[in-house]
Amino acid sequence: MSFVEIISELVLMPLIAFVVGLMMVLMMRKISARLQRRIGPPFFQPIYDIVKLYGKDTQVSHGLIHDIGIVMAVGGYIGAEILLPVPGMEGIADKGGIITLSYFLMIPSLGMALGVGQCANPNGSIGISRALTAMLAYDIPFIIVVFGAAWHYESTSLIGMIEYQQANAWGIIEMPFLAIAGLFALQGMLGKQPFEIYIAPAEIATGPMVEMSGKYMGGLFVMQTFQLYTAGVLYASLFLGGGESWLDLLPKAFLVVAIPMSIAFLFPRYKTEDLIRILWKWPVMLALIGLAFIL
Amino acid sequence: MNLLDQFFVIVAVALISIAMLRNIKVNSIVSTLWYVLMVVMLARMSSVAYNADTITSAFSIELLGFRMYWKFTALSWFFSIITVVSALASSLFMSGDWGKQYRQQGGNYGLLQLALILNVVSMLILLASGDLLSLFIGWEFVSWASFLMMVLMPSKTAKKAAVKYVIYAIVGAMALLAALAMVYASSGSLDFTQITDAFIQMTDNMKFGFVLLFFIGFAIKMGLLPFHLWQAVAYAETPGPGAAFLGAISSRMGLFTILVVIVQFIGLGNLEEMNIALPYLNMKSLLAWIAALTTIIPTYIALQQHDAKRLLAWHGVGQGGYMLLGIMMYDSIGSAGGLMHVLNHASYQAALFLTVVAVVYRTGTSDLNKLGGLVTQMPLTFLVMLIGIIGLAGLPPMNGFVSKWMVYRSLLVNGEPLLFVAAVLGTLGTILSVYKLIHNTFLGQLRVEHQQVREVPWSMMVPMLGLSVIVFITGFMPGLILPWIASIQETIGLPVVTYHLGGIEYAKGGLDMIWVSGILFYGFGVGALIFYFLGGKAKRIHQYDNYAGGHFLSSEVKYHYSNNFYPGLMHLIGNWYRGSFKWMENVIVSALSFVSKLFENMYRSRQPVMLLVLVAVVALFSIYKNYSGAGS
Amino acid sequence: MNHLILLVVLPLLSAFIIPVVAKHSLTISRLIGPVVLVFILALVVLSWNSVGSNGFAIFLGGFLPPVGIVFYIDHFSLMLSGLIAGMLLIVWPWNSYVAPRQYSLYMLLTAASFGLVLSADLFNLYVFYELLAVATYGLIARQKNPAAAVAALRYLFVSATGSAMLLLGIAIIYTLTGTLNIAHLATMTDQLHGLAGLSAFALIVIGAGVKAEMFLLNTWVPEVYSTIETPLAALLAGLISKLATVLIIRVLLMLFQQSEVLQMLLVVGVFGVISGEMVAWRAKDMLRMLSFSSIAQLGMIFIAFSIAGEVGLWIGLAMMLHHLLVKGGLFLLADKMQGSFDNLRGYAKRSAMAVAIFIIFILSLLGIPPFPGFWIKLMLILNLAEQNNTLYHYAIGFILLATVIEAAYLFKLVRYLFQDEEAATIVSTPKSLTFWYAQIFALVLLVSLAFISPISNRLKDMASQVANPDIYINTILPSHLSGGNP
């Protein structure tokens, strides 16, 4: 791996993730608009939003940890994107693997949690409490899915997994149950309805976001773009054979992200305990059945 | 006098001098210096750790036909260095202002230092033991030394916990003694090597008894299920730095003995061949399951705690499960993870306990419902706790991640999905609980009464920072530790791990922490650039200047969310805390009580003479019966 | 060497003299006892080396065995004699006012104890045993509190029944063989190993078992020990119970060394251990706890003796000595620490030294290294494990279980001692003779730690001497081997 390659990966991977993530945000908004029979925002709306948030006059900080929380939230995802192999850029990603990546994905949440905690607003803390609980809920099926995939592909390296699928068959064909369970967990991970109790705008004033303004909110926006991108690409790498080229990968990733969006509005919002209950019941059951097939 | 002899002479002199010195100031300085000297001595012995050598002490005792001797292997060295460094940190921590406050509150500072060195000495004796008898004696020393540490707190709960500990410890010791008897019965000697011979000769049923007896003995010390009840309260109710020391290393003595006796001399391969039921459940997997349950149940008990010390102590119990789980995987990477977790856990656990003690030092409480917002007052302590909880939760880039990663990797390789889920469940519970810890202590609203609180003095800050540097460095470059681990694996007959400075080499997915940390910090750097150089300038506002649904906040308004931090989760799983183990404990006590009541009634018999005559008649009759039976 | 007969004669004599002298001078009558005891102690120490490895016999009245009265003296009996003298000196009622008659009783007790240790025929053993019993009735009944009187009555009934059985057993043996000389009997053990012989043995064991605190026969123990004054309890629990045990062991070794008998002893011992510890666990006051614990320890000693051969014997001896030291010390300590546990709350504040000694004693009692108790328990357990009989292996389990229970109640008490709240009446540190003795006992215990090897070697020698019936027979009946039955 040459120095130029390293530098280009370090710079380009997050950048691409950001751009693609922005488009995913746009797609998300479009889908929800269409479902609600609206036209939806123009193409550049996500960028306008970010520029607006960063450019605001009032930027309220509650202290150093508040700032660092946002840095960690964005920075953690930037790190994660580098560990997520994409066509043509998998040199550094080889250093990580699925376990490391799963843990990397917790760092932004922890960062955000710290930042919100410093704000000294109970609404925020309640939101974090719910978000962490939700994490406990969706991570159980997710981790079984990860285990199943790693066991099936005999590798913890995402590159190895993609190679296996491209040589043999896609994961979704060989492990349909696990794939469905993974999709379920994804819904929780993205915090989409019915699993969005931790934002719950009406009752806890948007929870973690309650004290976020200006670029703090902008940071969270950027974080969301990364989150969508990561979810899409990770799922595609695990079950949809990754991509031999960007043209191959991106449609899959967009498709993966589109699914939760499309079904989100079909459900009401679950209470925290119901959220755990449902995520520990159906997806876990599916995942275990899937696991039984491949072991 | 070889190095080990010199080391023990130094330890003995240290013990005597600390016991003798009455002057508080001199005592503090001297004891800290002794620990430094011990670290130096261990460093001089490092060939043990790097080349898997053994140093045997020239000193030995012959008594009643037994020869007891002491030696240092890579395993002993590894545990010793952890012990001594933890003691150094604790001693340094208590040597300054903390000790002053402790004395003002009526504590006996000299006794605390003495208890600490006694713990260290007894652990070193145990760690150096060269045969089963010296192991048993060292084991008992450790038990009683930690008992001494536990009774130092004047509170009633502390004493109750200590006495409960004594009972558990005695159960463990007796189980151990029974196992010793089994070894002796088959060979007439108590050498370590006889364990293997004795084991091979046994029938299947005896093997189970043998392994279980040893395991029970060791598991009690380690607080493994179902013997986890005593530990957390006992450790939490110990004077501050003492709790840090005990929490860091004391219960790991159980792991050490498991490694020596069960792993090295009985052999995990032999355990694997002991089928219990079905092909899936053998002795080794049973132990692995015990380990897995130990990661889950105590962790979720920790989640319920609202006292910071107890919370940490319960996590200490839970983390023991990871160590055993990794070792029970019986491969290079899992056992390396398990072993490494001992050091990693000791470092962050000691740091975390010390931060909590620091908070108690300034605020007088470790009740998580009575704290909050201290980050502005004690930023460095916050930093140490942050590093500590990242380590405890096992997130990159701290060292806890490395060892847990190895355990996970091993579970993946060995195809243990349920154990894997159990381990992850433990980790997730830990994340929830440590966030609660740091949130309720340092984040959120600062209470009015804490507005004058300042950062702790340097005598307390230095050990905390030192420990967190260890947490970070060994996470960043696990290769510093891995040679020791490899020597241990070589010594106790486990597959040896392949390592480099950054981590593990492993086919289809290794780990390189230098890269991982590098990427993470690169990410943070970019994040910081984005945050600080893009967008407008942020304005710092007061904590009362907050969104409050249209109301105004003032110091009268408690605007902090801390009690019952995870209501949704507890609403669901709260019913699962049945206290089954407490119930079991009570059942045993009641059964004993019932039987002893019967005996008591016998002793209180109103007709002692009749009883006597009855005995005589029965005895004579049975003799008669015996003889007439034999005659016919 | 015949002067060793003084061991029995002097105390007996002084027991009768004391009341007479007291009429003239109270002071002299008080001094007689201690003087005699010191003299005997010196005698024992001086003659230690002159007793060879084979022991020797003293024939009273010129009659040769099997007809006459014979005393048999070896290191074992000398050691016991020394202990008796020392123990009595310690529990001697120095500073309290007591009637001279009580001194007489003490001296009677002394004489009986020596007789019990030295006698080599069954009838004499019975006589001294009865004498011992009478002396103890008297001592117990002289206690001031009414509960002690009730206890004494209970003790009297049980003990008297036991004695009757002992006598019956001895009578059966006499009918069977026509002799009561143990050495003589030992030469015709085949006559004894029948239905009648075994029944006789059972009766003897039951009779002596009453005082040896054997299981089911020890129902008097808790009442007595918890009501009488503690030095006396220390004497009874520490020493007298051992003497009865020695009696059983002598008969067992010489006459009935069969594996079934040993196993019976084992079972009785196990029950003693378990029942004693369990009831002690329920106890709510110090003395009661100690007495039940004493029952358990005696059970443990029986277990040790049930191991065939020298090994069992020397472990049993070691346990006896250890128990004498520890339980004696504990009872002496309890002189100041008695009463229910509630009264002992926060005692550590009142007397740190007493509590420290208490903890040393109980640690040794529990068998915690490096205290002597540990080594004894270790040897016991390892040797039980070596036996080729599962019964012995189960016994290990019970011993270990009992130790756990023991730890539970002892440390429950320790918790009380260290409790800080409501130390209502802070009394100054106890400064009494018994406390000093307790300290000395603790010191001896600690010092003995440095001499584990020599002590155990001595005990092994002693055990090999005792365990070998041939030595005994040869010494008492020199004619036996050369000229057959006299």
Strand order of the largest sheet of chain B: 5-6-7
Please tell me the overall pLDDT of chain B. 87
Average residue pLDDT of chain A: 85
**Number of continuous helical runs of chain B:** 24
In whole angstroms, how far apart are the ends of chain A? 36 Å
Helix content bin of chain A: over 70%
List keywords for this structure.
heterotrimer; A: 295 residues; mainly alpha; 13 helices; 1% strand; B: 632 residues; three-stranded antiparallel sheet; two-stranded antiparallel sheet; 24 helices; 8 strands
Structural account:
The complex is a heterotrimer of chains A (295), B (632) and C (486). Chain A is mainly alpha-helical and 295 residues long. Chain A is built from 13 helices and 1 strand, in the order H-H-E-H-H-H-H-H-H-H-H-H-H-H. Chain A has one domain. In chain A, 73% of the residues lie in helices and 1% in strands. In chain A, helix 3 runs parallel beside helix 11 and helix 6 runs parallel beside helix 13. Chain B has 632 residues and is mostly helical. Among the domains of chain B are: 268 residues, no CATH class; 49 residues, no CATH class. A 3-stranded antiparallel beta sheet of chain B has the order 5-6-7. A two-stranded antiparallel ribbon of chain B has the order 1-2. In chain B, strands 3-4 form a two-stranded antiparallel sheet. Helix content of chain C is 76%, strand content 2%. Chain C is built from 22 helices and 2 strands. In chain C, strands 1-2 form a two-stranded antiparallel sheet. In chain C, helix 12 runs parallel beside helix 18, helix 14 runs antiparallel to helix 16 and helix 16 runs antiparallel to helix 18. The longest helix of chain C has 32 residues. Chain C is globular, with a radius of gyration of 22 Å. The C terminus of chain C is likely disordered. Classes of the chains: A mainly alpha (295), B mainly alpha (632), C mainly alpha (486). At the A-B interface, helix 2, strand 1, helix 3, helix 4 and helix 5 of A face helix 16, helix 17, helix 18, strand 7 and helix 21 of B.
